[in-house]
Design brief:
The chain has 118 residues and is an alpha/beta fold. 22% of the residues lie in helices and 39% in strands. A four-stranded mixed beta sheet has the order 1-4-3-2, with helices on one face. The chain is globular. The model has no long low-confidence stretch (mean pLDDT 93).
Length: 118
Amino acid sequence: MMKFDHLALPVSNLDRSREWYIATLGLKVEFEIPARHAVALQDGEGFAIFLEERPVVPNGIALWFQVDDVDRTFTEWTARGVAFAHGPQKNFWGYGPELTDPDGYIVRLWDERTMKEK
């Protein structure tokens, strides 16, 4: 058995990114490493993203998060003030909305039902 469970993501401002991933996506702090300017944030299924402050942040990174219902999540998050690049729509990767984190990384939301239907 092999399971992908951690991802390192360089960020330009750790505090700003930490707050965005917690407030916007609802990730929880697993642990922090102040000496490395890093924090591990975990989703509800045990996957962790290590945010580590770096002077240079690469482009072209996209993250996909599976949710229960794309349309409902989009409506709820929009009501909370989350700014999306676009709402749920058919894309090359499937169906869902996109938003960007503070460093410009693309965050895509999807669900199993609409991926099959749309």
